[in-house]
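Hi Prof. W.,

I finally got the phosphoenolpyruvate--glycerone phosphotransferase prediction working! I wasn't sure whether to trim anything, so I left the full sequence exactly as given:
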Amino acid sequence: MTRIKDALDAVAAAVIAQKDYLTSLDAKIGDGDHGLNMARGFRAAQEAVEEMDDTTLPGPVLKTIGKALIQNVGGAAGPLYGAGFVSAGEACDGDTHMNVASIEKLLSAAIAAIQKRGRAAQGDKTMLDTLIPVRDCFLPENAQDKPLFEVLQDASRAAGEGVNYTKTIAARKGRASLVGERSIGIEDPGAVSSMVMYRALYQFLKN
Ligand code: ADP
Ligand code: MG
Ligand code: MG
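And this is what came out:
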């Protein structure tokens, strides 16, 4: 089964397609490299996964993606996303299947790792302003008895709302915090890359 690899290819293609847009956002409030960093990282992740003998289990694949991001991306986002993927991989077991509870578990593990490393909270104008609302859709109190596809759709909407929210606030973490109030009006590049990744996964799962 090559489905996990196919999902990675879908996410990588979306990130690479949005490279210039992500970079242009980062040029406005940071140093203009976010798209380049993410595209480089995902190409490296694809190469690393290509070299794996066995890509049937999600845990080892997620860990390989995470390590490739950590090793190949300078700057803030690569190591943060990398730590997130590694922790999500560690949260898998031989028996992990795609359902509301397992997605919640993986996203929560990723968010915890990103927060441990980056010490940012929701509202600081970072990738977390997308990732936390996305994860919250999969919590039992919000997912209730909804079918998986409906929760995945809720989360796609939440990702867009998270990005829009970052437009209204000033950055308090990362390079964009250096421009402070002047970052208001611009979407956070990392919040956008998180939305791009999530929506690529959603489209992949829907098909
Ligand atoms: P750099 O800022 O080092 O050039 P990138 O441009 O690749 O790195 O990534 C910038 C993105 O990283 C920001 O838009 C933000 O979403 C995210 N980011 C920066 N610092 C943090 C942090 N401490 N916690 C979570 N995300 C962060
Ligand atoms: Mg940057
Ligand atoms: Mg940089």
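Residues 3-206 form a domain with the Serine Threonine Protein Phosphatase 5, Tetratricopeptide repeat fold (CATH 1.25.40.340). Does that look reasonable to you?

Thanks,
D.
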